[in-house]
Structure prediction request, 252 residues.
Amino acid sequence: MVLAWLAFYDSLLGVALVAAGIVAAHFGLTPPFKGFQIFLVGFFFAGIAIVLGLIGMLLTRGEERHGGQIRARIGTILGLVVAAPIVGIVLRHRAVPINDITTDTQNPPQFVAALKMNSECGEGLAYNPKFAPIQEKNYPDLAPLTLDGTPNIVYKRVEILAGEIPNWSITRNDQTAHELEGVATSALFKFKDDFIIQVRPDGPDKSLVEMRSKSRCGVSDLGANYDRIMSFFHILKAGPRMMPPGSAQVQP
Prediction:
């Protein structure tokens, strides 16, 4: 049965491409986004395998086509093994069509150190004002963080806590301007996201913490930049003892 064979081979191809994309990106054999594209092609073939496998199982019922039934089942199962976790990740996260999140959409923090780094996808670092209404609709709770203490005191806490996050690399630390920049690297595909944190006065003995986080590639970040900001603000309010392992980590 042709469909059963196609389902079987498509599922094997899907598994191979998904594994190749992850390995290539994780170990630096290809740029992260190229590895992710290979991964997506594998997901596409896995989806085809599921459809062909289901049709193949229906058409190969009966003992005379037992071999085709087995191949159709294997193709369907392997396709589901590949596709189901990916679909689950997408469903658990908001596929908001922006990849630049900031606590101040009217006057977002401006990158300095990131301007000197090459973006794999060639995206600029200027904030797109079209993102503002999309962010406000999807992340209405995102706002600057007000903390007790002068900017010097609060910024010192920002320095310490940001330096303790495993997948963050600090690229600029301006203690005079109370600005800190860095790069967050995702665990699986090693995507690089740029972030900047600002601390400024907000009345007597109070400070306002602003943060912006931007992905270098892609249209949607699956909520990674929003999660990074909210996670860091939670850590900043709670203190180092409350920092969970791998805090502010980006997925995938």
